[in-house]
Write a structure and sequence with these properties.
Elements lengths: L3 H16 L3 H23 L14
């Protein structure tokens, strides 16, 4: 949740910046916001060992 709220806020700010024609700052804030939201999604829906490098992941 700590990553989701700032990510959503940054995506909203990026959308507002696009509306007002500030494309460069919109891209920067949008990318940062998207990274935060995707990080929250992966942390929230992944299970322990999903990204293990040991070779026996998923068992």
């Amino acid at each position: 949740m700590i990553l989701l709220i700032p990510g959503a806020v940054l995506l909203t700010v990026a959308a507002v910046n696009v509306i007002f024609g500030q494309a460069t700052i919109a891209v920067i804030t949008g990318v940062v916001g998207l990274i935060l939201v995707l990080a929250w999604i992966f942390r929230h829906y992944s299970h322990r060992g999903d990204y293990s490098r040991s070779g026996n992941a998923g068992q």
